[in-house]
Every structure is written in C-alpha cells, then in structure tokens.
Amino acid sequence: MSTKQSRKLARTFAVVSLLVVTGATFAAVGNASESGSVSPHDGMVQVVVGGGETLWDIASMVSGNQNVQSVVDEIATANHLASPDVHGGQRLWVPVK
Question: Among residues 78, 15, 17, 88, which one has the least CA distance to residue 50?
Fold first, then answer.
C-alpha cells in the first residue's frame, strides 16, 4: 500500500469515526431531553407544610370544585405518604388545579 493510499484510508477512517461520535452525541442529547420532559410531578407544585396544618387543610386550599378527600388521596400518593400525618417544615407535592 502506498503512502498516498494509507493517508486516504486514515482520513476516511477519521471522518467515519467523527460521524459516528457526532451521531451518538445527538442521540444521547435527544434521549435526555425526551426523558426530562415527563416528570412524575407534572401539574404539581411543592409546598412547605406550616406548623399546625393538616393534609386536609392543604387539600382544601387547592381542591377547587373537587372532592377534598380525593385531593388528600392524590397528595398522599404523590408524596408516598403511609399516613395522612404531616408536620411543619415538611415538603409536599400538591396538585395545581
């Protein structure tokens, strides 16, 4: 193989390698942006429980025309609460209606 052919082969290999790396980068960025667009807390805001507040109090404030108990259940599920007991300073995800 001549020097000219070796250089051409090396250049071709470098270009193909660069294209593969570029394609992989775009694929990774595309997947990252897709996975970041769906959040388990979409349609919710995080609030801090005030001293003496109950889960029912918080649900009543955001329930609008919905049944307060269903909003309590939604808050409990979103925050993985084993009981309806909350304490001051606790952060909770609450639905925005």
Answer: 88
Cβ neighbours, 10 Å, residue 47: 16
> Which residues lie closer than 8 Å to 97 by C-beta, 6 or more apart?
62, 63, 64, 66
What SS3 state is found at 45?
Answer: strand
Residue whose pair of structure tokens reads 């808050």 in the numeric block: 75
Q: Is the pLDDT of residue 94 over 90?
A: yes
Query: Model confidence over 6-65: pLDDT tens digits?
Result: 776 667 655 555 555 555 555 555 544 444 444 567 888 999 999 999 999 999 999 989
Which of 61, 57, 93, 88 is CA-nearest to residue 76? 93
Burial 74-83 (b: 16+ CB within 10 A, else e): bbbebbebee
The C-alpha atoms of residue 23 and residue 25 are separated, in whole angstroms, by: 5
